[in-house]
Write a structure and sequence with these properties.
about 220 residues, six-stranded mixed sheet
């Protein structure tokens, strides 16, 4: 009789151990499942945000392209990745920061559609000046180097936009000198492409973080 009781007690221990192991495994599986679902939800949210940003950017560019339909059709400006490009020789004579008549007329024609575009958007216009890699002529005492020349050209366009109706608190100037060329400076054609001014709408938050030495009046607020 005592042998029977002892045998029965020994036989129940593995059953309880097996039950505990299954509980642990089930708990671990639930935790893993919850973690996987959480990761999937995070990825889904990120994809949704990215898609909204893509659609917003697409809409922004379409709106800007519509606003600039006339000068774009005339070939007087380009629009690449939301950046309005204007050839330097259309705006300025070589080594000059004074707008030529055709350039002044073009800037005046851009002001109204750009001002209208900005009305419904929390954006600023960044006017950027660029030069080729050739040194400023030695007999030109007005500019120390290409940085100063590009800065003054950007300022000239900025002030012309303000004078033509773009709000002063919605536009600022930036200088890039010979940096960020769009073509090789190996020949006259390439250098002419690099002498340019670009106008780009950017979020106000980005402008607020711009380095002080890169901006000038109209200042970024």
């Amino acid at each position: 009789m005592s042998h029977d009781v002892e045998f029965e007690g020994e036989s129940t221990a593995p059953i309880w151990a097996f039950g505990d192991l299954m509980s642990v495994l089930l708990g671990a599986f639930v935790l893993i499942l919850v973690g996987v679902i959480g990761v999937q939800l995070q990825l889904s949210h990120k994809l949704e945000v990215a898609e909204k940003q893509r659609l917003a950017e697409q809409q922004r560019r379409a709106t800007l392209e519509q606003a600039l339909a006339t000068p774009l059709a005339q070939g007087r400006v380009t629009l690449v990745n939301g950046r309005i490009g204007i050839r330097g020789n259309l705006l300025f004579a070589l080594n000059s920061d004074q707008l030529q008549p055709e350039g002044r007329q073009l800037i005046q024609s851009l002001a109204a559609p750009l001002a209208q575009y900005l009305q419904s958007r929390d954006e600023l216009l960044m006017v950027s000046g660029f030069t080729d890699d050739q040194r400023v002529h030695g007999d030109n005492r007005q500019f120390t180097d290409n940085w100063e020349l590009s800065a003054q050209r950007a300022l000239t366009v900025t002030r012309a936009l303000i004078a033509a109706g773009v709000p002063a608190n919605a536009v600022f100037a930036a200088a890039f000198g010979a940096q960020q060329p769009v073509s090789a400076n190996a020949d006259a054609t390439g250098r002419a492409k690099n002498r340019r001014v670009e106008i780009a709408p950017i979020p106000r938050s980005s402008a607020a973080n711009a380095a002080p030495q890169d901006t000038a009046p109209g200042h970024a607020p």
